[in-house]
Design brief:
alpha-L-fucosidase; binds alpha-D-glucopyranose; EC 3.2.1.51; Glyco_hydro_29_N; Glyco_hydro_29; hydrolase; single chain; Immunoglobulin-like; 7-stranded parallel β-sheet; alpha/beta; 2 domains; TIM Barrel; 18 strands; 4-stranded antiparallel β-sheet
Length: about 425
């Protein structure tokens, strides 16, 4: 079956993305100073003139793109994405179209710093750009706007000229894709073409998505773009949930990337400590790759731009695990073999990787693998695991193992799980078993 969906197509310039499997998302902006979620302006219905004051107090003295890039690389990530403008409209780049930006206010082009630092660490450069803009006067109020409950907003909408905002959006994207060298990945955010609470949402016609996409590809022919312009694009982006199988569109497997927070908030949220434990994060990573996806893991630098102590620890732990287990992740994808309970498989060529979420006692029975595995070992220390195939016709009895379906391979495990947060077993398949 052939398809025309772009997310099902593979090109030389999408290969880096398909093998990367792990990237870093960075949400940073004025909301990092408020430190209560990047949607703080929406939650608190803050008027623009009040919110604008954050631009005065925003002092990213500890924002160090090189340090972030270094942490990302050491965590085994090969790309990273920075919010160039979030829904609040404040721009972290030099733009001729508004003075509401970090060059005017802080004397720094954080996007320029970002691009340079990523390239210096050998990372692919990703930029996030919000389609929503709560600061622009021609951006009409809707249910996703801080003024949604303002009784004057409906009348005000009649005086706005949304096409002026559309021009602004296109002009800013042109700047981002012209002034900063090669941009590998562009993450637009987001469309909501539906009516809610009597407000019209926004979608492809509002953004001028078809033209905008054309512009991006013209300026950056090898760019990868997500699907949040409300038109089919290079990948789909499940957010804050894990798909239960490889993602498909019309039955075809598609390129996808799960973006995930560490505590439910993308921007720095000082008092929110609902952190996912590192064991969960690594399981989410293995789970994602086992379904052919990428994981874009987010950090929210604090009000000064520093990576928080917590996030730093998480990145270090991911890095420690990746140092030993990267080959089960980078360049790996789904396997056609069915894993036993509480495990997932990832596969790269004739290497099959069993990620063991919950260490069982004594043995692991692998259905369908009898006679297909040449060698088995723990990946963290390279130590061999003994393999057996038991007679399927014999019942299990006393000390005799049995009762496994035909074709089952049994691994003998040490009683104690290896000292790594997520143990992985590497199985080398015979060439004809792939
Ligand atoms: C959502 C949120 C936003 C966040 C993004 C990340 O669309 O609106 O705050 O930046 O997800 O994917």
């Amino acid at each position: 079956m052939s398809t025309h969906h772009p997310a099902a197509q593979h090109h030389p310039h999408t290969e880096w993305f398909d093998t990367a499997r792990l990237g870093l998302f960075v949400h940073f902006g004025l909301y990092s100073v408020a430190a209560r979620h990047e949607w703080v302006m929406w939650y608190e219905k803050t008027p623009v003139n009040e919110y604008e004051q954050y631009a005065e107090f925003f002092d990213p003295d500890l924002f160090d793109a090189r340090e972030i890039a270094k942490h990302a690389r050491e965590a085994g990530m090969t790309y990273a994405v920075l919010t160039t403008k979030h829904h609040d409209g404040f721009c972290l780049f030099d733009t001729a179209h508004t003075s509401y930006n970090s060059v005017q206010h802080q004397g720094r082009d954080l996007v320029a710093e970002w691009c340079k630092a990523l390239r210096a660490e050998g990372l692919k450069v990703g930029l996030y750009y919000s389609l929503l803009d709560w600061h622009h006067t021609d951006f009409t109020v809707d249910f996703n706007h801080p003024r949604r409950d303002d009784p004057t907003a409906r009348d005000d909408n009649a005086t706005k000229d949304f096409s002026r905002y559309r021009d602004y959006l296109h002009a800013q994207v042109r700047e981002l894709l012209t002034n900063y060298g090669t941009i590998d990945y562009l993450f637009f955010d987001f469309s909501y073409p539906r009516v809610e609470d009597g407000w019209e949402g926004k979608g492809r016609d509002d953004w001028g998505s078809v033209e905008l996409e054309r512009l991006c590809r013209e300026l950056q022919p090898t760019i990868i773009m997500n699907d949040r312009l409300d038109i089919p694009s290079d990948l789909v982006t499940p957010e804050q949930y894990q798909p239960t199988s490889p993602m498909t569109i019309d039955g075809e497997p598609v390129r996808w990337e799960a973006c995930q927070t560490l505590n439910g908030s993308w921007g720095y949220d000082r008092d929110n400590t609902s952190f996912k434990p590192i064991s969960m994060i690594l399981r989410m990573l293995a789970d994602t790759v086992s379904k052919n996806g990428n994981l874009l893991l987010n950090i929210g630098p604090d009000g000064r731009g520093a990576i928080t102590a917590h996030d730093r620890r998480i990145l270090q732990q991911v890095g420690e695990w990746m140092r030993l287990h990267a080959r089960a992740i980078v360049g790996a994808g789904a396997s056609s073999f069915t894993p036993p309970p509480n495990t997932v498989y990832t596969q790269r060529g004739n290497r099959l990787y069993l990620h063991v979420f919950d260490w069982p006692f004594g043995h692991l029975h692998l259905p369908g693998l009898a006679g297909k595995v040449r060698f088995a070992r723990l990946l963290n220390d390279g130590s061999e695991l003994r393999m057996d195939v038991h007679d399927p016709n014999k019942e299990a009895f006393a000390t005799r193992m049995g009762g496994q379906p035909e074709g089952t391979l049994t691994l003998t495990l040490p009683t104690r799980a290896p000292e790594t947060i997520l143990p992985v077993i590497e199985l080398i398949l015979s060439e004809d078993s792939k």
